[in-house]
Specification:
The protein is of the alpha/beta class. It contains 29 helices and 25 strands. Among the domains are: 329 residues, no CATH class; 191 residues, Anaerobic Ribonucleotide-triphosphate Reductase Large Chain (Alpha-Beta Barrel); 113 residues, no CATH class. It is 40% helix and 15% strand. Helix 10 packs across helix 22. The longest helix is centred in the middle third of the chain and has 29 residues. Its cofactor is adenosylcob(III)alamin. It catalyses: a 2'-deoxyribonucleoside 5'-diphosphate + [thioredoxin]-disulfide + H2O = a ribonucleoside 5'-diphosphate + [thioredoxin]-dithiol. Keywords: Cobalamin, Cobalt, Disulfide bond, DNA synthesis, Nucleotide-binding, Oxidoreductase.
Length: 963
């Protein structure tokens, strides 16, 4: 695939040209570092499960506006040199200088700059953008550039394998070296003969699924980049391959095996000691479907599976049945995803060189076999003006500078294999993208799943890619087009016109996106005109990557194209400790929507307690959609994710790393609809994840197994099966504990939104609740009868041992009219009469610890928290000098008070363990009472959160895939 490469140094020198770099961000005569206040911090990282200190570096230097989380992750992940030695990097300045100086030096050597002064401005501008968190290169740049290690700058690789044993074994070797270097790879196995075809020797071929087993075992033994996470990889098979059904079933069958082994007592959690016996778990699987197959699915016709060597149809299948099987497998275990082959190749700038057959592990980079892509992402929220409009001209200036730096990196980069190096140098694929889209839209008062939100996202994406290709055409005039451009010039220009036409089709809805769209339109006009004259320096320009670790480096609230994960977040404090805060984008959004300071304070306080905006005091229901999130009470509908991807896809060279999340109750038909609509809307790839579909997915609260057991039983019952699990031959029967004839009772009168009622509660001698009676409506009315029946049912349940906490957790936050203000100072707002009744019962009969776990406090306790940071009074324990203060994290109000975690040193003291949240995912679980279906980090033990089609750890920055 090697082309006749242009000589960039000679090109720049021959033309006497070079880039004139405008000073936009930095200040002339002042180094970017001198505009910043710097401070020293101690970075100490602990494994939350064991208490062991896994990292410590004292006195590292960072800007004072960087969060502790950002400085911790950068220190632990990106600083080079052994800790405790003089060679160890000690601050952000050293890290940024190491990288930026390498880029500037290469730019000078290869003729990119018109003068030494322009090179200096480039250096200052790049430095300013990095230290102010406006953008970040992908992780390999920070790992390798400017060190003695190979200068690998790419995170994404696509390999190639042919139908020969030499090629298959070489695939194993190449993957191993890429995994060892900390990156991921993908490939298409469709050239390998199926198990239904003969070998030249007369025997039967093994088929690609058989060879997948060997590659999977290899990947499972290699620690990626020397870290604790395993390799990230993608395996693709074409839908017309004769072994396609076996491929679809691989992980599905293994999931059944995991379930069976788990029920037999084996440790099948992710990272468990027995999970290694399960196969095919180290790769994401995708089926590459074409338009012919999808049309056959729509029509309900037959589809032919073709021999690999001759191309002849050797078997026909019912297209709908195969599509159904793909969807059933995805429902059961989230694999396989779909990649839409004809759509991908319709936007391919280099079809004369070869087709695009595969992607990287996260599915955002799609290009030629044996190629790589280096990524960089911008922090969109940094470009929001004070008046909450997007600064399109400033964004464009940042993009042209960053894309220049990314292209320079290919001049000095090293690659894991020579074929990858040749293809990358010849085609110079880049992957500029962004993060914090969800936060940007919220701050602008736009719903993620709204026409306004999608229009804004589309115009920003269009401007980013248009500016990138415009700069690419300008670079081609200075240092030459990419070596493979000449043979692909017509196709490349055709794709540019397709992007331009898609931009013309965008319909803006407000002044903010109209300004961005106008500039994007100008950029695409320049792209088409300059491209005709100069050609292009880069075959590809943009993708939307997960931005996991680098998202933390930029202090982003949201990753990649994702919506906000939750409205509350977990924040570490400089000097130790942590706290729960409401995302700072929310007050900005409320102000944009016209709410006054008093209402904003009340709404933010409500969100801090409940984790969502439903029934927040004073918040208009029509504004709820602006605060919809990936998880929680108002989580986005699956098609909301699909529509956002569809809005942005026409303006990307590559694709989008994103998973469409579905609730556990989603059906196979729901998945079929998402896959079909994604194809119709022009997406290049779609991956889905149904909550709790993975058996081997450890949940921090241990609730996953119980939920799956219940689901398994329900599935079996639905199929008419008998489910039996005998532990011992003992029959357990509930025993009713009746109240004494004479018992303690209290009567409470209440008013909810003007509706009056009375509640009488009776207790046992130990003051545990045993019965309730509710009086609502006139005697003989339907409402009174229903309340009598409800009271009897609850009372009998209490007497048979149903804990009051269970009733409280089920009936609080139940919403129906009448709802609103009450006359009870301890429960000022009620979402329904049932919500009020069980909050009142919790306050009357549950202990403080039991109520804290449910987030229910009295008026005095809430006031005490505002004054002292603790709901509970400080109590003496043992002697006057020993004080223990507990602060429940699960329902902490958004007051920036440090959370103190107390651990009793005596393991036999009998004090119940209070689980303290250590990440936003765990915090969301505690607030909502619902598990976040994410794995635990293998480095620090905390719950990760979704980032694109991967997971990322807030505690240490580790990711489950490429970053």
């Amino acid at each position: 695939m090697t082309e006749t490469a242009s000589n960039p140094t000679a090109a720049g020198a021959a033309t006497g040209k070079g880039l004139k770099i405008d000073r936009v961000f930095s200040t002339e005569g002042v180094h970017p570092y001198d505009e910043i206040t710097w401070e020293r911090r101690d970075v100490v990282q602990t494994n939350w499960k064991t208490g062991e200190t896994v990292f410590e570096q004292l006195g590292v230097e960072f800007p004072d506006f960087w969060s502790l989380n950002a400085s911790t992750i950068v220190t632990t992940k990106y600083f080079r040199g052994a800790v405790g030695t003089p060679e160890r990097e000690r601050g952000l300045k050293q890290l940024v200088d190491r990288v930026v100086s390498t880029y500037v030096k290469a730019g000078k050597e290869h003729g990119y700059f018109a003068s030494a002064a322009d090179a200096e401005v480039f250096e200052h501008e790049l430095t300013w953008l990095l230290v102010h968190q406006y953008f970040s290169f992908n992780s390999p740049v920070w790992f390798n550039v400017g060190t003695t290690a190979p200068q690998q700058v790419s995170a994404c690789f696509i390999l190639s394998v042919d139908d020969s044993m030499d090629s298959i074994l070489n695939w194993y070797k190449e993957e191993g070296f890429i995994f060892k270097g900390g990156s991921g790879a993908g490939l298409n196995l469709s050239r390998i003969r199926s198990s239904k075809e003969l070998l030249s020797s007369g025997g039967t071929a093994s088929g690609p699924v058989s060879f997948m087993r060997g590659a999977d075992a290899s990947a499972g033994t290699i620690k990626s980049g020397g870290a604790t996470r395993r390799a990230a990889k993608m395996v693709v098979l074409d839908v017309d391959h004769p072994d396609i059904e076996e491929f679809v079933e691989t992980k599905w069958r293994e999931e059944d095996k995991i379930r069976a082994l788990r029920d037999a007592g084996y440790d099948m959690d992710l990272g468990g000691k027995d999970i290694t016996s399960v196969q095919y778990q180290n790769a994401n699987n995708s089926v590459r479907v074409n338009d012919e197959f999808m049309r056959a699915v729509e029509a309900g016709t037959e589809f032919g599976l073709r021999a690999r060597m001759t191309g002849e149809v050797i078997e026909t299948v019912d297209a709908r049945s195969l599509f159904r099987k793909i969807s059933e497998a995805a429902w059961a275990c989230a694999d396989p995803g779909l990649q839409y082959d004809d759509t991908i190749n319709a936007w391919h700038t280099n079809p004369e060189t070869g087709r695009i057959t595969a992607s990287n592990p996260c599915s955002e980079y799609m290009s030629l076999d044996n190629s790589s892509c280096n990524l960089a992402s911008l922090n969109l929220l940094k470009f929001l003006r004070e008046d909450d409009t997007f600064d399109a001209p400033l964004f464009a200036k940042a993009v042209e500078l960053i894309i220049t730096a990314m292209d320079i990196s290919i001049c000095f980069a090293d690659f894991p294999t020579e074929p990858i190096g040749e293809t990358t140098r010849d085609y110079r694929q880049l992957g500029i993208g962004y993060a914090n889209l969800g936060a940007l839209l919220m701050a602008m008062g736009l719903g993620y799943d709204s026409e306004g939100g999608r229009a804004m996202a589309a115009t920003v994406t269009s401007l980013m890619t248009g500016t990138s290709y415009r700069r690419s055409a300008e670079l081609a005039a200075i240092v030459g087009p990419y070596a493979g451009y000449a043979r692909n010039a017509e196709a490349h220009q055709r794709v540019m016109r397709k992007h331009q036409a898609a931009n013309d089709d965008v319909r803006t809805l407000h002044i903010a996106d109209a300004e961005v769209h106008k500039l994007a339109t100008e950029e695409w006009a320049k792209v088409v005109e300059l491209g005709k004259t100069n050609g292009f320096r880069n075959a590809q320009a943009s993708v939307l990557a997960p931005t996991g670790t680098i998202g933390f480096m930029m202090d982003c609230d949201t990753t990649g194209i994702e919506p906000d994960f939750s409205l509350v977040k977990f924040k570490k404090l400089v000097g130790g400790g942590s706290l729960q805060i409401v995302n700072q984008t929310i007050p900005r959004a409320l102000k944009k929507l016209g709410y006054d300071a008093e209402k904003i304070e009340a709404i933010v306080a409500y969100i801090g307690e409940h984790g969502h905006v439903v029934d927040a005091p004073g918040l208009k229901p029509e504004h709820y959609e602006i605060f919809d999130t990936a998880m929680g009470e108002r989580s986005l509908k699956p098609m909301g994710h699909v529509l956002m991807m569809a809005a942005c896809q026409p303006f990307l060279s590559g694709a989008i790393s994103k998973t469409v999340n579905l609730p556990e109750s989603a059906s196979v038909e729901d998945i079929e609809q998402i896959y079909l609509e994604s194809w119709k809307l022009g997406l290049k790839a779609t991956a889905i994840y149904r909550d709790n579909c993975k058996v081997g997915q450890p949940l921090a609260d241990g609730g996953g197994k119980a939920k799956k057991d219940a689901a398994d039983a329900a599935d079996a019952a639905a199929e008419g099966k008998v489910v039996e699990k005998v532990v011992e031959k003992i029959v357990y029967a509930p025993t009713r504990k009746r109240l004494p004839k004479s018992r303690q009772a209290r009567t409470t009168s209440f008013t909810v939104a003007g509706a009056e009622g009375y509640m009488t509660s009776g207790a046992h001698d130990d003051n545990t609740l045993g019965e309730i009676f509710l009086k609502l409506g006139k005697q003989g009315s339907t409402l009174a009868g229903v309340m009598d029946a409800f009271s009897i049912a609850v009372s009998i349940g209490l007497q048979y041992g149903v804990p009051l906490e269970t009733y409280v957790s089920k009936f609080t936050n139940l919403r129906f009219e009448p709802a609103g203000l009450t006359d009870d100072p301890d429960v000022r707002m009620a979402q329904s009469i049932m919500d009020y009744v069980f909050r009142r019962l919790a306050l009357d009969y549950l202990s403080f610890d039991e109520r804290s776990a449910l987030g229910i406090y009295s008026a005095d306790e809430r006031q005490r928290h505002l004054e002292t940071g603790s709901y509970e009074p400080v109590e003496e324990t043992g002697n006057a000098s020993e004080l223990v203060e507990t602060t429940p994290v699960a329902k902490a109000a958004p007051v920036e008070a440090e959370v103190v975690e107390v651990v009793d040193e005596d393991p036999l003291a009998g004090v119940p363990e209070v689980k303290v949240a250590k990440t936003t995912a765990e915090l969301l679980e505690q607030i909502t009472g619902h598990a976040v279906d994410s794995p635990l980090c293998m480095t620090c033990g905390t719950k990760m959160r979704p980032a694109g089609s991967c997971y990322v750890c807030e505690g240490c920055g580790s990711t489950s895939g490429c970053s």
